[in-house]
Amino acid sequence: MPAITNNKGPYIAVIEEGTRTVKFVLFSAETQEEVVSYSVDVPGESPQEGWAEQDPNTLLSAVHLCIEETMPQLATIGASSKDIVALGITNQRETTIVWDSITGEPLYNAILWSDMRADVTVDEVLAKFPDNNKDYLKPLSGLPVSPYFSALKLKWLIDNVPSVRKAIREHRCLFGTVDSWLIWNLTGGKDGGLHITDVTNASRTMLMNIDSLQWDPLLCKHFHIPMEILPEIRSSSEIYGLVKGHMLDGVPISGILGNQQAALVGQRCFKEGQAKNTYRSGCFLLYNTGNNRVHSSQGLVTTVAFQHGRDKRPVYALEGSVAVAGTALKWLRDNLNMMKDNEEAEDLAEAVKTTGDVYFVPAFAGLYAPYWRKDARGILCGLTQFTTKGHIIRAALEAVCYQTRDILEAMHRDCGFPLSTLHVDGQMTTNRLLMQLQADISGIPVQRNNKKDITALGVAYMAASAAGIDVWDLENLSANSGSDASLEDTFLPSISHEERNLRYTKWKMAVHRSLGWAMPKKSDVMTDERYRLLSSIPASLFILGSFVMLTLSEKVLA
Known about the structure:
6-stranded mixed sheet, globular
């Protein structure tokens, strides 16, 4: 390993593959600061309403472009790719890719985490469970049955794409989340590429046993998914293999984390009871529960936070996901022309001081945690003739904070004690008003980390630790757990407990009004399944049951 000499290395490289942006970052192994980086936007496609896709080859090309554009920057400080000693990968989770192991070509576009096409698939799965219980598989997977997770997307692909079924029959189909697709290609592709994933990404598929950290045969059977197409599950921090045939040729890949888990690690929330919230198009709140997994009874999901090496016990987290956060402001900007940019949005919201008793529930495609109601739709409550766009914009900001409080309340009930501080990151946290509103509505201090690349930094910790760089060792970092106070802004609650709870009560009233708006006809498969179950009851029992119900009704009426 090269010796650390000023800014000439060694360096820790990170590929950060987000929903809209791909970025390549190099961190100094000595200072843990970003040295150089390059990012590009990646286009998405929406073939139908509620569908969200990307071309997997476009994602891969974006990664190569970012690496190519970063190398000249590295040369300007007298370094080269030979000074890179480890590579970490962090990625959008749940996004599902299937590809041909022989040709290396995708069998279909990547189905993004936010895609909702698997609604009918959910009905098909739930029809086979007692009381259509969406939490029936939670004891095994930690997750409710939802189109959000990869298993439902993969089942849709198998059911609806003939080329995928054919590739499975011919034993040439591979499945993976984005990390698997990138690593397979970076390590040789069809010429011996590694087909792996880590525990954090695997825990979002709904196919991994949350206790054993292995693919679960029963879960795969429920979704009719052949286990041979699944990648090998590895820890979040180990040397998996070397990059082959690229500008990073010979660099060891040594860290993998889903992007929200990477943000938790980047915030250095290593201790049980610490939590972070990432504010982007959606919000993702993770609460470290230590080596003990907590099965939520309050609508949250159990996930793996990280596993620091093959021989280490996993660290678990409770997670609550908010589907619409920054997306609500984008909708107000693009669809209703209420403001030009986020800076103007903050100014307009600041000017009105309150929402004028307006509440905005941005349930554009249902509500995620803790409700898991796909029948919810967005509503505005409390409009008067005096309502202005400033009130509505401020209500959109408060909606982000109320949804976060919903999750915090659920975490409190699950874990038995309230959170004392909320660590925050993400693009939306540049909005100071939003951060103050979050402190006011949640009633706890909000600490904003001012480092630019918290997510990339998190997986850099994992990659560097596996590569044996002492100053990045997680054991030392854990001993000083919690972000550097010199790099944080703290926002303290500034309203009374009574006002906070009164406003939150009205928010819950607004949420209640948003439920049940979308009432689609049950899919044929669910209707048929219920009819089949009903028709399997012997006629004599059915008649007897009807007679009993009729008799009871007559007695009540009498």
